[in-house]
């Protein structure tokens, strides 16, 4: 039987643009993984890895015009948004190059023998080594930042792990182009092109997670798809780590004092956040707790005005469009649910933004309104009107894990007066990133960033954005009573590589002890 073709499709028209490839067979997946596995040694030198990452960033930036053109044709996200996303991706690659140069991610710890300890301590030297080949499953909504050259790939390569990417069907042509750029960058530093494999097709994705030489996986996508791969990773004869980002409601709590103080600003800000990128951000605020009464009414009016003035748009593919239209219709049909601005179909290929309102009491206990506590991908949010703090807390207690949780406070509450501290304590168990008087859309690439959260937001406690994302692809190993001549350079007493380390209980940074 002939392999199924892989088509690039224009979401603005639903028409096929070009055949890009064919879906990979099990044999082709095996070949890609084995080629990646064979490239491990070429990544062993940290200087080479860092140079490779910087060259990859330079090559991507140089190819910006053509890459953005193809990305827009396949995603309809627009050249401005995509240009910014590509710049973010290049910055992230360079940031990981800096992390590789510094070497702190290796977590070097050296303890010399101590016969006076109970029990006695032998000579122990610990650091972290790469896991091996990493499978990366691209996201639909970020064709650069969470796809072939994205955070999972960049952090895995920085850790010294080759990568095989399962391309997302919404941007296969872009995936091929970007993979070619990364392979060119690898070749410039003597690294085999197999260090970055690319496969297409649903079955190829299943074959990839099962391959015995795949040592870990990163995923960004739906709860259903991510959970299936997570279970497959756990069911292997040798289970592997699966770092999946699956879904998030990203709740927002607006206090009564905040609504009274700045209803218009909060409503406008919420409208901008929930419709950004046609509501296709993983951190879109999908549930907003707003007080009943005049202050909350003012916020809802501001939100109504702002959303009404927001144009509709094209979602990433027609399947997502159909799911959005059906999903908002099912939610709007529930008892006591109203639609001040009705979300739904905006045309044959587009959608229009909107929002729903519901009494918070409907969400405080299990029932048919539980659907409103599930993510709906697209430009819609649910505003739950609460009568008092007890009702708001009851809703929060029913929420699953999230990537973010936000609270909008008044000026006095933000200064420590009122319930600000208490609300933060209620939100912290729900999410990996807690915001005050801001909006969650936009995930900065920074050392302190955490993009993750309790299940189903993610399947692990790690982050997929920021410097510590590299930790997902490493494992610690300790050497005991090993002669100096046999030790890796990273673990030798004279520190020939100038690495940050903890040496006999002291934190050292190159020639300076802390």
Shape: globular
End-to-end gap: 65 Å
The tally of beta strands, per DSSP, is 22
Largest sheet: 7 strands, mixed
From the alpha-carbon coordinates, what is the Rg to the nearest angstrom? 25 Å
Total helical segments: 14
- The chain-level mean pLDDT equals 96
> Approximately what portion of the residues adopt beta-strand conformation?
15-25%
Which residue ranges are poorly predicted, with pLDDT under 50 across at least 5 consecutive positions?
A: none
Helix-residue proportion: 25-40%
Strand order of the largest sheet: 12-15-16-11-10-17-18
Return the structural class: alpha/beta
Overview of this protein structure:
With 514 residues, the chain is an alpha/beta fold. Helix content is 36%, strand content 21%. The protein has 14 helices and 22 strands. The protein has helices spanning 26-38, 46-62, 64-75, 79-102, 151-159, 172-187, 202-210, 223-235, 256-275, 294-308, 318-332, 389-396, 411-414, 420-427; strands at 5-10, 15-22, 108-111, 124-130, 133-137, 163-166, 196-199, 214-220, 242-245, 251-254, 287-291, 338-341, 344-345, 351-352, 354-359, 380-386, 402-408, 431-436, 474-480, 501-503, 506-509, 512-513. The strands form five sheets. It has a seven-stranded mixed β-sheet with strand order 12-15-16-11-10-17-18, with helices on both faces. A hairpin with a 2-residue loop joins strand 20 (501-503) and strand 21 (506-509). It is globular. 51% of the residues are buried. The model has no long low-confidence stretch (mean pLDDT 96).
